[in-house]
Amino acid sequence: MNIYQLLAAVWRAKLLFVLTLLACLGAVVAVTLSLPKTYQATATLLVGLNKGADKAVTYDVNLGEQLTRTYATLAANPNVAEAARGRLKLSTPPQELLQRMSFAPVERTQLLQIRAEGRSPSEARTLANGYSAAFVERVAGQFAAGQTQATVSINEPAASPARAATPNPPIYIGLGTLVALVIALAVALLRERLDNRIRVAEDEDMVFGHPILARLPNVSGKRGRWKDIEAFGLLKTNIDLSSDNPAQVLLITSAEQGEGKSTVAARLATTALADGERVVLIEADPRRPGLGQRLEAAPAPVGLTNYLAGAADLDDVIVPAQVRLDVIWSGPMPPNFGALLGSPKFEALLDIMRRTHDRVIIDCSPVLARADASIIGFHADGTVYVIDVRRTTRSSVQAGLNQLGKARGRLLGMVLNRTSVGGLGYYAGQTPPDAVSPLELAATEQARHDGR
């Protein structure tokens, strides 16, 4: 994933990204403000040798630094902590007191810093000074007993700290902001990963490795039929230009029901009719026929299934709907429709339609519902795959494409239906009367074509 894809994923999940970021920032601020404050106070001690020591030893700087590091270690002895606890009258165990103390020599000096942590400035100061005094007394006792030649004195007593050492709100909130950004980005990318919906940018011309033939606005409803004239004109043009030999027999299908394939088939037929072509529209979905509703015409009781079963002649099933527009309705549902489609009679029917019509458009059941689309796609010149971008999942689309590939059909491309970008152009502002039906629209377009 490159930077542009990353930004696009974040933009698509911008609301989730912002909400996650704000929630994380709120949590960081709340935790920072709720943490108990800890104050630190530091006393500085001077480690040296008594005046009677050898002068060579006295002025050995390296020996002084080594001595200071030694006493930094001795200051952390539990016996010193026990003495400090008694001096300060604390009930805290020595080990717990040592956890609140730190001892460090100042580099290239003979200074030793004793730092104490407290819940208040005064407590931190009292602990640091009390512990330092206890340590100085202990070393002084050893010096008086002749156990050491070193002396330790308080060079600078601890003062009350002006502010808490922890938490540090600017640092905590700054680091928390970086972590919140990473978490928000991870949530946005996870949503993108788990989102099974189809996401196609406006400037993309391929989807699932196949060309996008057209992006259609909502093609359902009477008021949308004029608005998509230009979009369907573009669809037909792209189909014709998809190869040197334009596909004469077209299969219109989809992965699942309700994606608009029947509407696309009907509107594509009327668009071809408007271009002066002689068109036959075949309804090959007897289980859930939908062309009658799309064309706003009453289906004939005798249709494709009757012809393929040998119960009707071809002249009985071809119904003229307009001049140069014929319809073969589905007919009643037989028990073996798949076998009828695989019979030589269906292939012979397509051969006849090729000779008598310029364009044969077939509306059949979805690819994932039955084997009908796979059988017809093998005989058709090309398949148009309709995708409802609002409801179809990527897994369904890919499963349908896999099935079409197994049938060795020729896929011309994809039609993205019900998109927010329809490329309406000049027709976008036209709103014809609601009563105009697709066949009436076809007649109007045909009259315009004949009058040229």
How would you sum up this structure in a few lines?
The chain is α/β, with parallel strands linked by helices and 452 residues long. 46% of the residues lie in helices and 18% in strands.
- CATH superfamily of the largest domain, by name, is P-loop containing nucleotide triphosphate hydrolases
Helices, by number, come to: 18
Supply the number of structural domains. 3
Q: Structural class, from helix and strand content? A: alpha/beta
Overall mean pLDDT: 85
Name of the CATH class of the largest domain: Alpha Beta
Summarize the biggest pleated sheet.
Answer: 9 strands, mixed
Quaternary organization: single chain
Low-confidence stretches: 54-58, 219-224, 422-436
Reported CATH architecture of the largest domain: 3-Layer(aba) Sandwich
Helix content: 40-55%
Write the layout of secondary structure elements.
Layout: H1 3-12, H2 14-34, E1 39-49, H3 55-58, H4 61-75, H5 78-88, H6 94-99, E2 101-105, E3 111-118, H7 121-144, E4 150-156, H8 169-194, E5 206-207, E6 210-215, H9 229-240, E7 249-254, H10 261-274, E8 279-284, H11 291-295, H12 304-308, H13 314-317, E9 318-322, E10 325-328, H14 337-341, H15 344-356, E11 359-364, H16 372-379, E12 382-388, H17 394-406, E13 411-417, H18 438-450
Parallel strand pairs: 6-13, 7-11, 7-12, 8-10, 8-11, 12-13
Antiparallel strand pairs: 1-3, 1-4, 2-3, 5-6, 9-10
